[in-house]
Amino acid sequence: MRQIGLCDLHHAARVVQAAAPSARAQLCHDLIWRAHFADKYVKRLRKIHPLWGDGSLRHAAISYEESQCIVEDTNEYLLAIARVADVLAQRRREL
Prior knowledge:
The chain contains four helices and no strands. By secondary structure, it is an all-alpha fold. Helix 1 (6-18) packs across helix 2 (24-45) and helix 1 packs across helix 4. The longest helix has 22 residues, at 24-45. It is globular.
């Protein structure tokens, strides 16, 4: 997966925020896996993945309609960013 920036966290958090609370952790893992897979796809085939983009977390997230939602609850949005960041940190520790 490509380097993570604030824009990546923003788009991923909007998708996670829109999901049911019980599905949020798995959704974070899915987004990160999709970004990782797309990055490998781009590096190997030298073209953008048709569904998940260029290997960035942002592109993996914008494949979901929820990434276009307006953030209404700042507290929930911040909790979603924290959840995404926590799953990313956990994944990096495991590598």
